[in-house]
């Protein structure tokens, strides 16, 4: 675990998202999303020796938190712009979220993905009415192709995290946590590009500056962790991880980097074996399926539980979109 001291932003690095932006986002999207419940788990509290609250965002309509940010961005577009079409690149949760958000807004969505994307996600995205464009190569190739197409055709490209409106949408989770849980000492959040933790952390710290925002990532995909340690966004060689939703390098100009420097208090890296153990623990204690990215936050608490005993600990279960066979294999290994 690495502890990061909060860094004040300079005048040229002003935070681009405010509490008011998140509250406006909540008003904009609340009739389209599901307010997922926050639950104190008696069994997990006994297991860890602390008060453990689960935020069940895996029950969101698209199967992950991504719907919030996608909706806030898409519903903010001028109608004449949205009607031209929506573009994104994603092999999974972001693509599902954009497809559903575009459906709600009555816009046409095109999702670029790599040919290696699993058929479950591909079919789910298509079932929501989005057009699929399969690209040779990896996710980066799909993103590069999507951006070039959006620019050429003058269409709106929806970033998964590098956009103030997307971050504000993810921050609406913080509003619900503030409403549902009286006192939070620590909040464990899985981190990829940093959009989710930026939005939630900004909102929660505005009301409780003493709260600890704890970022959790796989050791196999530690790009944001290493970048924060280096003080700049760097490219990191990553390897395969069950938490594919948090994998991948961070855009070099991402606004989430400065936000994360300000917001994150601790950073925990977890092994693949710990991710599997976390998936198995939630299945055993709660009888629910979570994806690898959600398990990363649980694994963070598991690994460092002795440091958070007798505290009010919140764990964000950020998604459930995992192929059943992959889930079964993970919890049995």
TrEMBL record:
Cofactor(s) listed in the protein's UniProt record = pyridoxal 5'-phosphate
Q: Does the keyword Lyase apply?
A: yes
GO terms of molecular function: L-serine ammonia-lyase activity; pyridoxal phosphate binding; threonine deaminase activity
The record's annotation in SUPFAM superfamilies points to: Tryptophan synthase beta subunit-like PLP-dependent enzymes
Q: Enumerate the InterPro entries for this protein.
A: Ser/Thr_Dehydratase, Ser/Thr_deHydtase_PyrdxlP-BS, TrpB-like_PALP, TrpB-like_PALP_sf
Q: Which UniProt keywords apply?
A: Lyase, Pyridoxal phosphate
Q: What is its EC number?
A: 4.3.1.19
Q: Which residues form the signal peptide?
A: none
Q: Does the keyword Lyase apply?
A: yes
Enumerate the spans annotated as Tryptophan synthase beta chain-like PALP domain.
Answer: 31-319
State the family named in the UniProt similarity comment for this chain: Belongs to the serine/threonine dehydratase family.
NCBIfam families this protein is in? PRK06815.1
What is the designated name of this protein? L-threonine dehydratase catabolic TdcB
Which species does the entry assign this protein to?
Answer: Candidatus Berkiella cookevillensis
